[in-house]
């Protein structure tokens, strides 16, 4: 392999893609709870911040370069326009894929096409992504089609190139700013340093800055990978543009903060303020100042480093705005799980690999294509190589690459499948007395079900009747509520505490009590059933409650309905009870009942939001 | 020791099967791509499928080879392969573990048959090893990998036998069990990437061999002429 650097780089990309593939399998098989550190209070984490917000921002190079070259006719940047548009296309593709990972119900992603909600910022975002992705595909299609038999289509798209390009610039402008509008709707969640009424404009200006930096970074990286001379004239021109844009962005941001009287927040020493300082230094201050120095603009290494610095800073800005700066409001600590990093890096690696593939095989940059094709031709006539271990002929050129890369991918994916978490940690709850009162208010509200617990208990037979509805109790408790063990109904629940049993049963000498003497391997499925010792604790009599026959519990609604309705329907038929409407919805789901009045008389404040439970 | 035992029974087992399944998919994908490519460049695209199928069966049941010069080796190899296929897949203990893990089960071999096959396979392995060591040509062609794979199979079978018969076990049970787990898992892991991948690729060996005969006669010379390297040694 001639270009060892490229080979190693691609191999590393394949390893990252393999890890992400493994996590992807588990994310779609087992859900978000297992594969992320996200929660109901922090639903937007790394994936939204980096993959979606960052992906869109990284793609800004496409519309910036299209505008620079085709609208402002700066022809010397022509060579950078096509790679930038390709980057934009792949970036938006990554956004769509990343969104699939983050959506709780990814199969509903097509809903905005049919179910219109024109007042929703997300609706605008969804349409912008769809339209702009289509337009980008049309923009990049002629490059691919020129090497296929579909020459008529290629001719048509080439003639339409300019209108498509203009449409792309318009849509992208809309979309970059609409991501800012998305955050406008949460003024109390986004930290004041990031929140501003001018968020859409700030997002648009920062997207232009990031677009310029990204084009520089991408051009430098590809010339490093393929060992070409960096196109210094173009790069230093872009750096000059970037220094103006970055300075404008910095001033814009500062003036905006000053008008809102928020400048003091920058130096209040809190965690968000340090994040803000780091972000501003990386994204705007350092690159803007250094790009302005001509000597720096002449050094390819400095440009490389500063472009990376600026890109990192702006991606951090998107992550801050959409996630980290909200931790301030939710007070719910969030740090991404490694699986989240794996997916994000894997998507980026896959994009990089597709980018390199297209650049090596299609005329994105005709000069570069000539070079890679000449190299490929040289490789075709190289002597065959043998794999040292499998003793198989590796073939030459891409066939060798296919074997090596697929090997790396397979190993990384198997490793990822092995180490990725497959269950959420089981929460060990301390035993406590039942939280019951005479009347319980149930459901999410504002229309609650008021449940007369005492009346039900008395009618069912007093203290001995708990087991009719409650199934398994915690130690030292009677009638433990569902929520104590089933914290999330859609996850398998296990309350068995091995350490506590070992401690209570006289330490290691007690293994045989549950595991048996002859059993060579001590594993749970072969051990004694819990019910052999705890028979009296498994008291479910209600046919709706089936203990341990399924991995998952029913939802609260189903659990309640299955327990209440059959019994109510039976009683409704009983002439002695004489309440024929007992089996209907209104028997429980009704306001103004005597039970509700009794409850509200006891807790007068609880009808208002935020009242006592 | 406990940690090693935990790792071997949990994550390492998972890794072994993940590598085996993904590696097998990769190997099949690459092989199918290569076979299609070879077929497309073949001069004569008529493939005698029936004859090839018969020939493959002939190699699976090596009756003809019994008339050859390496009768003992042929028998040992066949016996070993039968044991290697039947014992891991149809041992009652293995099936019980699979049933516990994923709920699937299938009929098992009787314990006596499994024991017999294990000992036969071990004997077969011994003969194969001796052949490698004593036959001049075989020794010349053997690499470290050949000996390592043989050793791995021997360890897996011996430790498996003692795990099934704890009364005759000379070592602590858990240690023997650990040897069995690790050696078997190592076999699964290296299977798709080493010579052992003939277990995955045996249906295609005949096709690859057959396609080799269909290349255009003298095709290599034409390639050399096209590359401007006529007359140079390959």
The secondary-structure class of chain A comes to mainly alpha
Major sheet of chain A: order of its strands?
1-2
CATH architecture of the largest domain in chain A: Up-down Bundle
CATH level 3 topology of the largest domain in chain A: Formate dehydrogenase/DMSO reductase fold
What is the CA-CA span between the terminal residues of chain B?
A: 54 Å
CATH superfamily of the largest domain in chain A: Formate dehydrogenase/DMSO reductase domain
What proportion strand of chain A?
Answer: under 5%
The largest sheet of chain B is: none
Number of individual domains of chain B: 1
Radius of gyration of chain B: 22 Å
Approximate helicity band of chain B: over 70%
- Estimate percent helicity of chain A: 55-70%
Shape of chain A: elongated
What gap, in angstroms, lies between the N and C termini of chain A? 70 Å
In total, the number of domains of chain A comes to 2
Q: Which class of the largest domain in chain A in CATH terms? A: Mainly Alpha
Average pLDDT reading of chain B: 84
Spans of chain B of 5+ residues with little confidence (pLDDT < 50)?
Answer: none
SS summary, helix count of chain B: 11
String of helices and strands of chain B: HHHHHHHHHHH
Report on the structure:
The complex is a heterodimer of chains A (613) and B (234). Chain A is an all-alpha fold and 613 residues long. Chain A has 2 domains: 4-371, Formate dehydrogenase/DMSO reductase fold; 439-607, no CATH class. Chain A is built from 24 helices and 4 strands. Chain A has helices at 4-30, 32-35, 46-58, 60-71, 78-102, 111-114, 121-145, 151-159, 161-184, 199-225, 232-259, 271-291, 294-297, 300-330, 338-361, 366-380, 398-419, 453-460, 482-485, 498-504, 511-515, 530-533, 556-573, 594-602, and strands at 385-386, 393-395, 439-442, 449-452. In chain A, strands 1-2 form a two-stranded antiparallel ribbon. In chain A, a hairpin with a 6-residue loop joins strand 1 (385-386) and strand 2 (393-395). In chain A, helix 3 runs antiparallel to helix 14 (300-330), helix 7 (121-145) crosses helix 8 (151-159) and helix 9 packs across helix 10. The longest helix of chain A is centred in the middle third of the chain and has 31 residues, at 300-330. In chain A, 33% of the residues are buried. The model of chain A is unreliable at 428-434 and 609-613 (pLDDT under 50). By secondary structure, chain B is an all-alpha fold. Chain B has one domain (2-226): Fumarate Reductase Cytochrome B subunit. Helices cover 74% and strands 0% of the residues of chain B. Chain B has 11 helices and no strands. In chain B, helix 4 packs antiparallel against helix 6 and helix 8 crosses helix 9 (173-190). The longest helix of chain B is centred in the N-terminal third of the chain and has 31 residues, at 11-41. Chain B is globular and about 70 Å long. Chain B starts with a helix and ends in an 8-residue tail after the last helix. The mean pLDDT of chain B is 84. Chains A and B meet through helix 17 of A and helix 2 of B.
């Amino acid at each position: 392999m001639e270009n060892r650097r490229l080979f190693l780089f691609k191999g590393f990309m394949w390893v990252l893609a393999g890890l992400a593939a493994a996590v992807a399998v588990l994310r779609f098989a087992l859900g978000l709870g297992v594969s992320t550190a996200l929660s109901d209070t922090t639903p937007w984490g790394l994936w939204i911040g980096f993959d979606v917000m960052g992906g869109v921002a990284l793609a800004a190079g496409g519309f910036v370069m299209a505008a620079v070259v085709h609208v402002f006719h700066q022809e010397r940047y022509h060579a950078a326009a096509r790679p930038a548009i390709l980057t934009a296309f792949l970036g938006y593709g990554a956004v769509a894929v990343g969104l699939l990972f983050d959506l709780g119900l990814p199969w509903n992603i097509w809903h905005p096409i049919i179910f219109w909600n024109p007042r929703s910022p997300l609706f605008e975002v969804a349409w912008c992504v769809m339209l702009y992705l289509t337009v980008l595909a049309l923009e990049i299609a002629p490059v691919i089609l020129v090497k296929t038999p579909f020459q008529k289509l290629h001719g048509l798209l080439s003639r339409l190139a300019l209108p498509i390009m203009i449409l792309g610039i318009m849509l992208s402008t809309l979309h970059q700013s609409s991501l800012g509008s998305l955050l406008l709707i949460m003024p109390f969640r986004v930290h004041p340093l990031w929140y501003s009424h001018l968020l859409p404009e700030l997002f648009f200006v920062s997207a232009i800055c990031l677009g310029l930096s990204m084009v520089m970074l991408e051009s430098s990286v590809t010339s490093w990978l393929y060992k070409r001379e960096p196109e210094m004239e173009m790069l230093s021109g872009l750096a000059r543009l970037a220094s103006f844009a970055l300075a404008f962005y910095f001033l814009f941001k500062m003036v905006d903060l000053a008008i809102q009287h928020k400048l003091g927040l920058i130096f209040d020493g809190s965690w968000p303020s340090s994040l803000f300082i780091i972000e501003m230094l990386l994204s705007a201050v350092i690159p803007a100042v250094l790009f302005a120095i001509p000597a720096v603009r002449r050094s390819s290494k400095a440009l490389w480093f500063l472009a990376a610095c600026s890109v990192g800073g702006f991606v951090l800005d998107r992550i801050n705005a959409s996630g980290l700066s909200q931790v301030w409001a939710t007070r719910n600590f969030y740090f991404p799980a490694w699986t989240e990093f794996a997916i994000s890096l894997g998507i980026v690696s896959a994009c990089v690999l597709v980018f390199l593939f297209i650049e090596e095989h299609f005329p994105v940059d005709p000069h570069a294509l000539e070079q890679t094709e000449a190299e490929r031709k040289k490789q075709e006539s190289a002597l065959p190589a043998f794999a040292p271990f499998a003793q198989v002929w590796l073939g030459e050129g891409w066939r060798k690459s296919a074997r090596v890369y697929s090997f790396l991918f397979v190993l990384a994916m198997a490793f990822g499948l092995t180490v990725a978490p497959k269950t959420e940690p089981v929460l060990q709850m301390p035993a406590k007395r039942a939280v019951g009162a005479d009347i319980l208010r149930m459901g999410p509200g504002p229309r609650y079900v008021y449940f007369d617990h005492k009346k039900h208990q008395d009618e069912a037979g007093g203290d001995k009747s708990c087991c009719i509805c409650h199934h398994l109790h915690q130690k030292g408790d009677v009638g433990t509520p569902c929520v104590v063990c089933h914290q999330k109904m859609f996850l398998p629940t296990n309350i068995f505490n091995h350490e506590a049993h070992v401690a209570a049963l006289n330490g290691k000498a007690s293994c045989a009590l549950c595991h048996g003497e002859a059993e060579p391997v001590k594993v749970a499925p072969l051990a004694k059933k819990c019910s052999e010792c705890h028979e009296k604790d498994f008291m479910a009599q209600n046919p709706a409650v089936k203990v341990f026959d399924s991995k998952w519990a029913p939802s609260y609604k189903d659990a309640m309905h299955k327990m209440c309705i059959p019994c109510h329907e039976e009683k409704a038929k009983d002439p002695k009870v004489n309440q024929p409407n007992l089996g209907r919805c209104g028997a429980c789901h009704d306001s103004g009942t005597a039970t509700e009045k009794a409850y509200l008389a006891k807790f007068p404040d609880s009808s208002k939001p935020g009242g006592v439970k | 020791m406990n940690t090693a035992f935990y790792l071997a029974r949990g994550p390492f087992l998972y890794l072994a099967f993940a590598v085996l399944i993904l590696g097998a998919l990769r190997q099949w994908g690459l092989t199918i791509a290569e076979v299609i490519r070879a077929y497309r460049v073949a001069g004569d695209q008529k493939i005698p499928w029936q004859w090839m199928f018969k020939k493959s069966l002939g190699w699976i049941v090596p009756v003809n080879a019994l008339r050859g010069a390496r009768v003992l080796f042929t028998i040992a190899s066949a016996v070993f392969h039968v044991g290697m296929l039947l014992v891991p897949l149809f041992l009652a203990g293995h099936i019980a573990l699979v049933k516990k893990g994923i709920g699937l089960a299938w009929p098992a071999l009787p314990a006596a048959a499994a024991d017999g096959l294990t000992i036969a396979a071990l004997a077969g392995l011994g003969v194969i090893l001796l052949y490698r060591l004593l036959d001049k040509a075989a020794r010349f062609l053997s690499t470290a990998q050949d000996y390592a794979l043989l050793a791995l199979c021997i360890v897996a079978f011996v430790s498996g036998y003692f795990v099934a018969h704890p009364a005759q076990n000379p070592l602590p049970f858990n240690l023997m069990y650990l040897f069995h787990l690790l050696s078997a898992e190592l076999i699964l892991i290296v299977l798709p990437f080493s010579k052992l991948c003939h277990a995955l690729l045996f249906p295609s060996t005949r096709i690859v061999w057959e396609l080799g005969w269909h290349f255009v006669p003298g095709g290599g010379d034409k390639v050399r002429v096209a590359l401007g390297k006529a007359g140079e040694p390959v």
